[in-house]
Amino acid sequence: MTGLLDVVGAVLVLLGALLALAAAIGLLRLPDVLSRMHAATKPQTAGLVLVVVGAALLLRTSVDTWMLVLVGAFQLITAPVTAHLVGRLAYRSGGVREDLLHRDDLADREDDPAR
Q1: C-beta separation of 52 from 71 below 8 A
Q2: Chain segment 40-84, per-residue pLDDT in tens
Q3: Among 102, 80, 104, 82, which Cα is nearest to 94's?
Q4: Which alpha helices (DSSP H) does the chain contain, by range?
Q5: Whole-angstrom Cα distance, residue 100 to residue 48?
Q6: Using an 8 Å Cβ cutoff, are 85 and 40 in contact?
Q7: What global pTM score does this model have?
Q8: For residue 90, which of 25, 48, 30 has the smallest C-alpha distance?
Q9: What is the rounded distance in angstroms from the CA atom of residue 97 to the CA atom of residue 94?
């Protein structure tokens, strides 16, 4: 059973690392702030969760597992908030490419002081 948990943990860590690599490549290759923000949050967060679960399966001690749970929880809490703030700041400062937007829900808001 220990050998099986080691193999599953190693596979999860490898998959998580590949998702984090995909996020890094997306940050370099995508054209605008909103696309880069999506690449920075979605696969990176999923990759970190996979690495945390894999590490918990490899380590198997309660102190390490609880520390990894905290790391995963903080990432899941902070990544969406950070992405929202970065997207809002990019929109307000004019850093969003209008030609790549399919729909702009904030364009006609009169209560937005930046527009």
Answers
A1: yes
A2: 888 989 999 999 999 999 999 999 999 999 999 999 999 889 888
A3: 104
A4: 2-29, 33-59, 62-92
A5: 29
A6: no
A7: 0.80
A8: 30
A9: 8
Cα distances (Å, whole numbers) of residue 9 to 31, 41, 55, 103:
35, 23, 6, 41
Of 40, 42, 74, 70, give the one whose Cα is nearest residue 55.
70
Question: How buried is 43 (Cβ within 10 angstroms: 0-12 exposed, 13-18 middle, 19+ buried)?
Answer: buried
Is the Cα torsion angle 19, 25, 30, 36 positive or negative in sign? positive
Q: Which residue has the tokens 């102190």?
A: 63
Measure Cα distances from 95 to 33, 73, 85, 101 in Å: 7, 30, 13, 12
Per the structure block, which two tokens stand in for 103?
A: 């729909």
